[in-house]
Amino acid sequence: MKAAVIREYGKINLEEVTKPVLKDNQILIKVKYASICGTDQHIFRGEFHPRTQLPLIPGHEFAGIAEEVSSNVRNISPGDKVTVDPIIWCGKCAACQAGHYNACTTLKLVGIDLDGGFAEYISVPSHMVYKVPEHVSDKNAALIEILSIGFHASARAGLSANDNILIVGSGKVGNSILHAAKTITTGKIVMADILDERLAMAKSAFGDIYTVNIRKSDPVAFVKEITGGRGVDIAFEAVGHEKEIEGRFNPVRLCINAIKGGGKVTVLGLSDHPSGILMKELIWKEAMIISSRVSHGEYAKVIESLDKGTLHPESMVTGIFDLKDAQKGFEFLENEPEKHLKILLKV
Ligand SMILES: [Zn+2]
Ligand SMILES: [Zn+2]
């Protein structure tokens, strides 16, 4: 079969590789679409070294058709449209034993720690496979993983119906939070970023959100202005680095300053460097900082929302490439972040 393989960082090429064989309790999936994630970009650049071992077939966001199903599998039948929750937990550590398996101390992901879905076929344990309704498009099915990140972050934050929120970072994660939040709250949503083009993309999907360019105006002042001086109930940090724009706070501290007294900050960005925060700004508000990692059973909720037609993730897709042109997809994301958000690979 064909697969897109990273053999050296910065390069991903289509290669002929061995087709996986179906094992006990597994489902062999013929992949239709896969999506390039921010994590894939980190891997591509070599920033996940040595966690990722080369050669690697990346891809943890994908969907396709169940081609072959092991005889002891009950949840999926051959021909079903399916997607995969890529997380693999140990079941033995303290987090796993408490049912908090996405915080497993040895958490692994398909497509990061082992070969993933940028391939014609992949075989995975049946408990990781979710059936997707036929009428949901293959493209949208490949976006279920990224949407589950937004739903999980909303759940971690305890987002409820009338909450006003700020999302810092209008990238893939920020937009997945936006899509999820739109199914939960009718309150005010502010999206902050440094790229006008990214903000315009979010605004074109949801005309009633507020956007603010952090370089041009102070997002904290903006939030105060539209909430009558109150601040938002929840601020999400989805930037992925700790750097600050001149004259502004770093992303986490910005969130702390934008929330109301007793508000919450939910952090998702995986920076390799510390973020400076002033504790009294947090303590005086008796605010909470909550972290959010991957997802914890939110696939079912995302699939249900897609089934009902309340989610429109296609607005995140800015390009579709054939699997053989994966390199081009990665280069577009690296070189033109103002133009590209989600790139799908057609397998
Ligand atoms: Zn991802
Ligand atoms: Zn564990």
Keywords for this structure?
alpha/beta; 11 helices; seven-stranded mixed β-sheet; binds zinc ion; 2 domains; Rossmann fold; globular; 26% strand; single chain; six-stranded parallel β-sheet; 347 residues
List the helices and strands and how they pair.
Elements (H helix, E strand, L loop, with lengths): L1 E7 L2 E6 L9 E11 L1 H8 L16 E8 L11 E4 L2 E2 L5 H4 L10 E2 L11 E5 L3 E3 L6 H4 L2 H14 L7 E4 L3 H11 L6 E5 L2 H10 L4 E4 L5 H8 L5 E6 L13 H8 E9 L11 H5 L4 E4 L7 H10 L8 E6 L3 H10 L6 E5 L1
Parallel strand pairs: 10-11, 10-13, 11-12, 13-14, 14-15, 16-17
Antiparallel strand pairs: 1-2, 3-4, 3-8, 3-17, 4-5, 5-9, 6-7
Helix pairs in contact: 4-5, 4-10, 7-8
What would you say about this model in short?
The protein is of the alpha/beta class. It is 27% helix and 26% strand.
Calculate the mean pLDDT score and round it: 96
Distance between the termini: 11 Å
The CATH H-level superfamily of the largest domain is Medium-chain alcohol dehydrogenases, catalytic domain
Q: State the CATH topology of the largest domain.
A: Quinone Oxidoreductase, Chain A, domain 1
- The tally of structural domains comes to 2
Q: Pick out the low-confidence regions.
A: none
Residues in β-strands, percent: 25-35%
Rg, nearest Å: 20 Å
Main sheet summary: 7 strands, mixed
Fraction in helix:
25-40%
CATH class of the largest domain: Alpha Beta
Count of separate DSSP helical elements: 11
Q: Could you give the order of the helices and strands?
A: EEEHEEEHEEEHHEHEHEHEHEHEHEHE
| Structure class | alpha/beta
Bound molecules: zinc ion
* Count of extended strands: 17
